[in-house]
């Protein structure tokens, strides 16, 4: 494998810090796209959302400070916006905050929270085609817990973490739909118990009290389908629920104690536990591994993906000894004799059999540069700093690490979810200019968030009035390499007073806001022989120096371009 260059930037204006990325496995099939991560953990300073290119080089990162350390979650492209959650994540396993929506210039244009006096949890935010937003909320609610092991009869002090999801009009903030878990699912469906001392020790006092509510359901994903119904994933009931968008009733339950499905693959499809991120997916994304059955009246067939953790902190008693992605076929026969079947179509297991006890995601990548008909599968391993890309048949294509293996399961470095999108899905156009700095005789330039830069144009000037009257000489045009490109000044250019760098797109055109501030390097080395006439013309000595500088830099430009094409 190889390492992506994510060491601290030498350009002082950026102050960007991010984990160093290593690819343990890399194939050309992974060459297109941006990775979206939200690193957090004991060893992540100034956390924030980050975008990496397909080689692991930084594209954009920003620390959004708040009263709780500025930890971001769930960075993704939602429609035309870049979205992520920010708030108080000190509540174990969930949070209290807002989702931020950023435009292409990385300005925050809207903050979205929950309605009806609730707060938005960190787990989910989806923008629907109807311009509504779906959010999850955890709130403390009084509810009997004797059915799940309450020893004392203090009915006045029995509380749970209630799970709610809302569909909200993003313009008005009005609630279009709301669903409350305890109104439809019995507490006895949970795989957690109040008497478990590990749960009781998480808060002040016994579990199930107002000081330490019982986290029995733990919703972590919601999506709305084309029929107006909702698919939700609940970690602590080991179940996925399909919810009616008309009245909130449960159409079916997959997995857990209330499962309604018959497993046609000898139980392999129903042994998921502590899972995350249930999604419906399209048949066309898996044509190499799945043949859609002939449509029969009364039958509904869907494909679904799930990230199966198979672990929860200390509990490894359910499922296989590793986490995995799962592709499932679910079928429903309608009518008086309703029947439900499920089949495991494909598993996505890392060669090292990674087991993630918390967090994680499974999503699809639709590459625009690949000749493959099927989508790729991206697995984010949550508490473990690993992101793996697979072909639809389960072959590992790329294995990205943003933390050391010795830190697995420790919380040192982690990312709740991970996504990868085609480069065409996000165009970043910052309103601020490129950052430029010099160290010794090397100029460093970067432009955080700008995705259209293909080349850098270095310009120099010996004139004091260059900033005002625009007398600049082009001395180098070099390809953009990684996040921060280094341009070495030859001897003939090292006495130049003023430097600046401009950003060029794939057509060689100057990008808007693409001219850096002027970097002033002091007096010319041969200042006694350089001056400006009354007409503004350079004396010969300065002109000769700039011509020599330009000639040498043009030669270096050709060399760098050849290097950049390797």
Automatic annotation (TrEMBL):
Q: Does the keyword Membrane apply?
A: yes
Q: Which UniProt keywords apply?
A: Membrane, Transmembrane, Transmembrane helix
Q: Which Pfam families match?
A: Arylsulfotran_2
Give the source's domain of life in one word: Eukaryota
Name the residues that span the membrane: 537-556
Does this UniProt record's set of keywords contain Disulfide bond? no
Protein name per Swiss-Prot or TrEMBL: ASST-domain-containing protein
The source organism is Teratosphaeria nubilosa
């Amino acid at each position: 494998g190889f390492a992506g260059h994510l060491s601290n930037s030498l350009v002082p204006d950026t102050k960007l810090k991010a984990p160093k990325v290593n690819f343990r496995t890399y194939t050309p099939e992974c060459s297109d796209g941006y990775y979206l991560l939200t690193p957090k953990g004991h060893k992540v300073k100034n956390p924030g959302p980050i975008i990496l290119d397909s080689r692991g080089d930084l594209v954009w990162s920003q620390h959004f400070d708040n009263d709780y350390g500025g930890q971001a979650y769930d960075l993704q492209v939602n429609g035309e916006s870049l979205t992520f959650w920010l708030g108080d994540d000190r509540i174990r396993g969930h949070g209290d905050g807002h989702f931020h929506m950023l435009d292409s210039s990385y300005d925050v244009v809207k903050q979205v929270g929950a309605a009806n006096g609730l707060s938005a949890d960190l787990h989910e935010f989806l923008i629907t085609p109807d311009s509504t937003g779906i959010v999850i909320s955890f709130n403390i609610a009084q509810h009997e817990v004797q059915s799940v092991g309450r020893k004392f009869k203090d009915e006045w002090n029995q509380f749970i973490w209630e799970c709610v999801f809302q569909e909200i009009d993003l313009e008005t903030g009005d609630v279009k739909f709301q669903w409350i878990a305890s109104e439809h699912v019995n507490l006895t469906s949970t795989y957690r118990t109040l008497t478990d001392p590990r749960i009781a020790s998480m808060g002040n006092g016994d579990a199930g009290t107002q000081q330490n509510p019982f986290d029995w359901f733990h919703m972590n994903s919601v999506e709305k389908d084309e029929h107006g119904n909702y698919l939700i994933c609940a970690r602590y009931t080991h179940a996925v629920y399909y919810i009616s968008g008309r009245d909130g009733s449960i159409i079916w339950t997959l997995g857990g104690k209330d499962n309604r499905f018959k497993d046609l693959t000898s139980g392999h499809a129903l042994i998921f536990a502590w899972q995350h991120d249930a999604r419906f997916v399209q048949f066309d994304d898996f044509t190499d591994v799945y043949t859609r059955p002939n449509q029969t009246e009364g039958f509904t067939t869907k494909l679904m993906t799930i990230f199966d953790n198979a672990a929860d902190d200390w509990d490894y008693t359910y499922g296989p000894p590793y986490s995995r992605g799962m592709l499932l076929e679910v079928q429903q026969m309608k009518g008086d004799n309703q029947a439900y079947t499920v089949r495991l179509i494909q598993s996505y297991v890392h060669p090292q059999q990674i087991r993630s006890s918390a967090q994680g995601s499974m999503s699809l990548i639709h590459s625009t540069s690949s000749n493959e008909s099927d989508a790729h599968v991206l697995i984010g391993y949550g508490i473990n700093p690993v992101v793996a890309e697979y072909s639809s048949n389960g072959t590992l294509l790329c294995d990205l690490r943003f933390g050391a293996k010795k830190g697995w399961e420790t919380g040192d470095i982690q990312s709740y979810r991970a996504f990868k999108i085609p480069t065409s899905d996000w165009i970043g156009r910052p309103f601020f200019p490129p950052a430029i700095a010099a160290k010794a005789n090397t100029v460093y330039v970067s432009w955080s968030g700008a995705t259209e830069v293909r080349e850098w144009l270095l310009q120099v000037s010996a004139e004091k009035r260059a900033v005002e009257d625009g007398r600049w000489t082009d001395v180098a045009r070099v390809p953009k390499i990684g996040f921060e490109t280094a341009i070495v000044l030859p001897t003939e250019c090292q006495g130049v007073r003023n430097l600046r760098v401009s950003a060029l797109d794939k057509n060689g055109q100057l990008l808007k806001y693409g001219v850096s501030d002027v970097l002033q390097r002091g007096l010319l080395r041969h200042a006694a022989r350089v001056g400006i006439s009354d007409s503004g013309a350079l004396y010969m000595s300065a002109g000769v120096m700039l011509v020599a500088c330009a000639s040498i830099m043009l030669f270096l430009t050709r060399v760098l371009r050849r290097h950049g094409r390797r």
